[in-house]
Automatic annotation (TrEMBL):
CDD domains xrefs: Macro_OAADPr_deacetylase
NCBIfam families the UniProt entry points to: PRK00431.1-6
Protein name, UniProt field: O-acetyl-ADP-ribose deacetylase (Regulator of RNase III)
Ranges for domain Macro: 1-167
Pfam families on file: Macro
InterPro entries xref list: Macro_dom (IPR002589), Macro_dom-like (IPR043472)
Transmembrane segments: none
Coiled-coil segments on the chain, per record: none
Domain of life of the source: Bacteria
PANTHER family in UniProt: GANGLIOSIDE INDUCED DIFFERENTIATION ASSOCIATED PROTEIN 2-RELATED, MACRO DOMAIN-CONTAINING PROTEIN
Species annotation: Nonomuraea rubra
Length: 167
């Protein structure tokens, strides 16, 4: 598996699957989630609503992942995963690792060869970037996935530097 770092906007990545840092409702939000739904168009939300009407009636739990179309994005699929909210009193790193592992498992099921990840939980959910980079890289490296090309798309220079230091 090839691991690469890119500084930029995840909605511009030409990959088989783009991972969304969603919330349990699957119905959109800010940050990466907002950008993906805005650029990808209403088809993504419409598939998310169908998931909520079916198997995910109570929403998608933290640490799990599910795929939809990528709509108008230059990708085939969006893999929605829900990161944990960072907590100073409780270690939730297992759930953050699970987001990466489960997203890769879904990507393998789809037959996706290339996947772009954002730094899950490091925005609204408050996870410190250095620790998030460590968990992301360790988990993806040891996941044993078939995916050939994993790209971490970091929004700003500080996030890029944190991942670069850990790679
Ligand atoms: N491309 C790449 N990275 C981005 C982009 C982008 N277009 N936009 C933001 N980031 P966040 P979370 C970075 O908040 O912490 C949403 O409202 C951002 O700088 O998107 O998992 C959901 O609906 C940060 O480093 O996700 C949930 O309610 C990282 O992506 C909640 O936020 C993740 O920030 C999820 O919070």
């Amino acid at each position: 598996m090839k691991l690469t770092l890119v500084q930029g906007d995840i909605t511009e990545q030409r990959v088989d699957a783009v991972v969304n840092a969603a919330n349990s409702s699957l119905l959109g939000g800010g940050g990466v989630d907002g950008a993906i739904h805005r650029r990808g168009g209403p088809e993504i939300l419409s598939e998310c609503r169908k998931l909520r009407a079916g198997h995910y009636g109570k929403g998608l739990p933290a640490g799990q992942a599910v795929a939809t179309t990528a709509g108008r994005l230059p990708a085939r699929w969006v893999i929605h995963t829900v990161g944990p909210v960072h907590s100073a009193s409780e270690d939730r790193s297992g759930l953050l690792a699970s987001c990466y592992r489960e997203s890769l498992r879904v990507a393998d099921t789809l037959g996706a060869a290339s996947v772009a990840f954002p730094a899950i939980s490091t925005g609204l959910y408050g996870w410190p970037m250095d620790d998030a980079a460590r968990i992301a890289l360790e988990t993806v490296r040891t996941a044993g996935a078939q995916v050939e090309d994993v790209r971490f798309v970091l929004f700003d220079a500080a996030a890029y530097a944190a991942f670069e230091a850990r790679l």
